[in-house]
């Protein structure tokens, strides 16, 4: 299973580990080991954490709360109070250690601290009136991302996952329509 880090923010990427939320939710974090791999594969998080079951459950409730708040933001409505409580509580915990070197940023800490960091980064983006949050334009994707493009003209969460799929489907539909039109050709007057 490959994870996608395309939302422009770790909290939104965590929320995006469930796809197709409105149809058939597809959860890529089925076990604590999946969460360990998700953290390790995320560039801005520590390379190694261990997930016990209670912290895994906590991570999933944080994820759902972050999604709820991000959706509230996209739909321009008041934040869900239960979601706010969960995210604010998570953000209040100890945070990971950060170090700068010529190789860049290095972060270390346990999973609990990583979740605090994710909650904080979620709060920063959700509180920022300039942040342009959007839901992916592919019907059924449901991923929410931060559009940092000039003029905020981005339509998809990611080109590979969604943009190219939608374009390929549109191309096939056009071909189908063209073929049908050819078949109908001789009998058509317009
Ligand atoms: Zn998408």
UniProtKB/TrEMBL annotation:
Segments forming domain Zinc finger CGNR: 133-175
Entry-linked SUPFAM superfamilies: Jann2411-like
PANTHER family: BLL6575 PROTEIN (PTHR35525:SF3)
Protein name per its UniProtKB record: CGNR zinc finger domain-containing protein
Organism ancestry: Bacteria, Bacillati, Actinomycetota, Actinomycetes, Kitasatosporales
């Amino acid at each position: 299973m490959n994870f996608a880090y395309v939302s422009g923010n770790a909290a939104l990427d965590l929320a995006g580990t469930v796809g197709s939320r409105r149809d058939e939710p597809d959860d890529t974090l089925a076990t604590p080991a999946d969460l360990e791999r998700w953290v390790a594969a995320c560039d801005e998080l520590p390379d190694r954490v261990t997930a016990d079951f209670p912290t895994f459950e906590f991570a999933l409730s944080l994820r759902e709360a972050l999604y709820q708040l991000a959706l509230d933001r996209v739909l321009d409505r008041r934040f869900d109070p239960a979601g706010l409580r969960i995210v604010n509580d998570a953000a209040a915990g100890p945070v990971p250690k950060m170090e700068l070197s010529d190789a860049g940023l290095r972060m270390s800490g346990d999973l609990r601290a990583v979740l605090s960091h994710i909650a904080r980064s979620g709060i920063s983006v959700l509180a920022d009136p300039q942040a342009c949050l959007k839901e992916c334009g592919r019907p059924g994707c449901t991923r929410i991302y931060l559009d940092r493009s000039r003029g905020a003209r981005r339509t998809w969460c990611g080109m590979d996952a969604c943009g190219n799929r939608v374009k390929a489907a549109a191309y096939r539909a056009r071909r189908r329509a063209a073929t049908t039109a050819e078949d109908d050709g001789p009998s058509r007057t317009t």
